[in-house]
Structure formats: C-alpha cells, structure tokens
Amino acid sequence: MASAATPPSTLPPPPRDFHGLYRHVAPHMEALNRFMRAEVENFEPEIREMAAYCLDTTGKRLRPTLVFVSGWRGPGVFSDDLVRAAGVVEMVHLATLVHDDIMDRAEIRRSRRTASREYGPDAAVLLGDALFSQALHIASQFPTTEVCRLVSESTRKVCSGEIMQTLRRRDITISLAEYRRMIDLKTAELFRVSCFLGARLAGYAPAFVTAADAFGRHLGIAYQIYDDLVDFAGEEERVGKTLGTDLATGKLTLPLMLLLERVSPEEKAAIIAALRGGQPLGLAASRQRMRDLGIGPGVVQAIEDELAHAAARLAPFSGEPATPLMTQLGDMLRSQVTALLPSAGAV
Amino acid sequence: MASAATPPSTLPPPPRDFHGLYRHVAPHMEALNRFMRAEVENFEPEIREMAAYCLDTTGKRLRPTLVFVSGWRGPGVFSDDLVRAAGVVEMVHLATLVHDDIMDRAEIRRSRRTASREYGPDAAVLLGDALFSQALHIASQFPTTEVCRLVSESTRKVCSGEIMQTLRRRDITISLAEYRRMIDLKTAELFRVSCFLGARLAGYAPAFVTAADAFGRHLGIAYQIYDDLVDFAGEEERVGKTLGTDLATGKLTLPLMLLLERVSPEEKAAIIAALRGGQPLGLAASRQRMRDLGIGPGVVQAIEDELAHAAARLAPFSGEPATPLMTQLGDMLRSQVTALLPSAGAV
Prior knowledge:
The structure is a homodimer.
Chain A lengths: L18 H21 L8 H8 L6 H9 L9 H24 L4 E2 L2 E2 L1 H5 L1 H19 L6 H22 L8 H26 L4 H28 L2 H4 L5 H4 L5 H9 L2 H12 L6 H11 L1 H20 L7 H19 L7
Antiparallel strand pairs in A: 1-2
C-alpha cells in the first residue's frame, strides 16, 4: 500500500478494466436513478420539466459513486441511506453546474444544451436555487440534522471557492497555494463530504470515516487538476462539453500557471496583456506552446501527488471492504489522465 | 373581530402609532442584529466582506418581525430559538433579493448599490448561493430536522414562483389565478413559514400554529400586491429602490392586469405590443393612465380582502398573547397602503 512518502512512480499501474467497480455499485446506482426520477415529482408542476432536464441521468454520477464506494460493506448489502445521501450530493452538484454554466457562458454540457442556453440565464439562476433547496430538503429527511449540517456547510464552501475564482479571473498574481485553496473549496469539498457520508452512513468506525474524508479531499483536488487539464487538452466531441472555457474566461488554472512560469518574459507579458485585456488567449496557439514546453508532466505530477496522499490515508485500512474499491477510484482517474495524455509530454 | 365575510370597510381604522409593536419585538430584533453580524464570521474569510454587505442591517426585517410577533408570549419572554429562526428566514430572503436584483438588472436597493452592481452578476449568483447555504446551515443547528425541512421546502417554492414569473414575462395571458399562485409561492410562502416557525417554536398549541400559518400566507399575498402597487405608485427617493422595474421587465402584476381590463381595445393592443416587443412601457404615461382609470381602488380592494382573511384566521384566538400584535401587522400594512394612496383613486 502506498504511503504519503511513496514516489508516485512506484504506484501500481492502472488496471485496464473497472467493470468490477461499476458492477459493485450498480444496485445503488440504479436505485439512485429511480430516486432522481421520482424527485422530479417533488418540484412544483410548473417547473417539473425544467427540473427533469437538469436531473437527467446521463451524467458521470461521480459523487454518488464516491458515496456508494466509501459506504461499501460487501455484496448484497444495500442501504437506502446511501442512495438518499448520493441524491443530496448529486443534486447539489447539478445545481452548481447550472450556475457555473451561466457564468462561463457555456452552451454545451454532456453533449446537449446547458440549462442557461435552454431556458435563459435568468430562469437558470432560479432553477439552480430550486435544485439547491430540494437537495437540502432531501437531506432533512434523515433522522438527525447531521446530513443537513454537513451538506449546507459544504455547499457554502463550494460557492465560496467559485466566488474566489470568479473575482480573480484574469488575475495572474494567483499563487499555487491560492489555486489549491480554490479547487479545495470548489471541488474537493463535495468529494470529501461524499466519502464522509458514505463511510459514516454505512456504520464504519470513526477512524475509517476520517480516512475516507481525507481520501475524498485528495481525490477531489486530483480530479479538479485533471479537469483543468482536460479544458486544455481534451477534444470537445469526446468530452461532450464546451472546452477552452477556462482560457476564454481568463481562469488561471495549473496548466496556465506552469505555462506562465516557463515562457520568456516577452511571451509572458503578451499572455498577461491578453488575459487582462479580456481577450481570449488563442486556444490552439497556447495548446501548441504547452506541448512545446512540456507542461503535461508537471500537471500529471501534481495529480499523482494527490493520488498518493489519497492512497496513503487508506493504507491502514486495507482490511475494510470499502478500501479496494476506493483505491480503484484513484486508479481510474490515473488511467483517465493516461488516456488524455498517452505520453505525458503531449500537452 | 373581522371574519372572512366581513366587508373590509368595517375593519377598524389603522392606529397611527405602531411603536408598541416595535418596542415589543425590540429585544429579539436587537439580538437578531447581533446574530447576523456574528454570522458574517462563519463565511470563508475571502468572502466575508461581501457577505457583510448583504447581511447589512438596514433592511425592513419584515420576516423576522413575523417570527417574533407570532412567537410573542408576553413581555420579558426571550427565546434564542426565535432569533435563530428569524436569522434563517431573513438570510433566505436576502439571498433571493441578491438573485432577484440580477434578473431585474436593478442597480439600487435600500438606497445603495445592489450586490449585482457592486460585485458583478456572476459573483452575485454565487454570493446568493452562499447565503442560501448558510441559511440552511443555521437551520440545521436546531435539535431536530423540522426547521431544515420546512425552510428548504419554502425556499424551493419561492424559487418556483420566481421561475414562473420570469418565464412569463411579457405574457399578457396570465390569469388572476395564475398571478395569485405566483405571488403565493414567491412571497407568501416565506411569510407563512415565518409565522409558523414563530408560533411553533414559542410552544403555541397546534390550532394556533395552523392559524398563524394561514395568517402569514394571507398577509404575504396582501404584502406582495402592495409591493406591486409601490412599483407603480411609489417615489424612488422615498422607497429607496429602483422603481418601475416590473413594467420595464414586462412583469404582469395586478395593477397592470386591471389596467389592461379597463383600457380601450386599441390602447390594450398598443400596451401588449410594447410588452411583447420587449420595449418598456412609458412609466409616467402608464401611471397617468392608472390614475385616470381609477385602478387604485381595485388594487386596494384585493389587499383589503387578503387582510380580512388574515384577521379572520386569528379571530378564534383573541386571547393568545401573540394575536393583538399580529393584528397590528395587518393594520400597519393597511396604513402603508393609505400613505401610498391618500385617496384610493390616486393611482
């Protein structure tokens, strides 16, 4: 088992087949899909069609997967509580997507029109609010206030991270520590709480719940760095969302930060001027520069570091049923990075 | 005591002095102001200044007043639960204002810049989300999930009402029943839950809690009709917010609905064409037409009807300490209407 000090290169290579993991979570995931379809009926009749559009089941369901995997107790063990908790975190996430797409002026998400494009930005603001509210309403159906308390706090942190990033668009003075804090809040927070809730609701001992919480946080940071890399290196058709929006909206992410570190002072000044002037950087041009300068390995290293930390937190719990599945999640992300950048120097 | 069948004209004239009511709620209101200032510290450091801007204490604190009045048990009876519940509903309300002002492109609220104008609409979307989240986080600090459950459901309904109104801008086919449903959701719902929570947390018997709930709903509908009237008839300097936004954004409210009923077919066609074409109606011109056609009395009658229903629900509970204060709230609204339209024909 990897520890925090283990160099990422000694981690096992990613398995080629993750069907085991999907098969394991399938009963819970199918129950979640039924749960989300039934949730549509809890919205006022006049907005049900819009709610259904946002709750559509074509998403990756990453956060529910975290809940189900962290709460895994063995084959045949089914828990309605896990399904409900997964519904809460997924609905919070879908609400944030609706609002993110307004701000990013994104038109396409999951290969179809965003809610903002479909219903207009004004209705999308309110629709996101209704989804947030309903997520907390589901959370309030647990016997105690714990889920409400944790999820409402996480949601506030997610929004705070997004605010920081929004207010600092086109600001090239952002430090690596500040970038890390922003992605910790805007992404890792909901990963963290998903893993916490899964382990906790499945009745795991407090020490494992704490480890699952930390695992989720590191995995979330790794995932967001990967997502920022996709925005540079992905192909729009394959990923199914508008790419290059970070560059177009002047969001400073790790790939761009590394690029700025490595270019000549003249090129740096030109990029900064374009960012500050509100002009989009030429996406193709900067992708080419990323490749020329070998930015890929630096970004991949940052992802690997987080995955190593995540694995290290689980190391003392190798005997728990959930641990192998959680470890597989880290491996899956690593294999996605590899698929994106067959050689780390490709971007 | 008025009953639902009592003609509004037989209701007692509004008292000239409401200091009694303000004096009664003052200890709770001062505690709320301290509570809201302390709440700022619970936001992430990077967004505290923005949160403080939104939680500023210059608002009317209408919904907290409803909580305190409905939960009134007598002089010297102080309840932290009432303060916390008031903090929840006020923070939900402030969040909706932040989002409303984005959609209405309003620049001024309470005689200063809106959050949207101050921080930009993108940050304001997220700031409203953070306020919503924190409101639910406060709600989760009660011993049971009841407050979370009620407030999250109310918040979803408020958003649904706003969505309906947003999607039907410039739509002149809205019926009176549809208008009523929209204001019931977008405004009366939070009034209703404020009164419910006040009475319930103060330990009143279920029958009174139900009556307080219904009282709050009717008062909320009356208040929204009044607010729609202010948008036509108020003076910007005195009211402290951008007026005429309903007309400018094509929102069909009761004054405009009555106007459309009473104008000639030609004038109706011209107003509809202006609304549908996305052109603002000339505010001054339509105000003048409202006066000429005596729209005021019809609007005032609708307000009086709701106030009569509200009073009727309290009639069986005249012996409860909260009842006289709640009745005063209805009287206050009536006196505000009178102040706005010294003669009901003025608009």
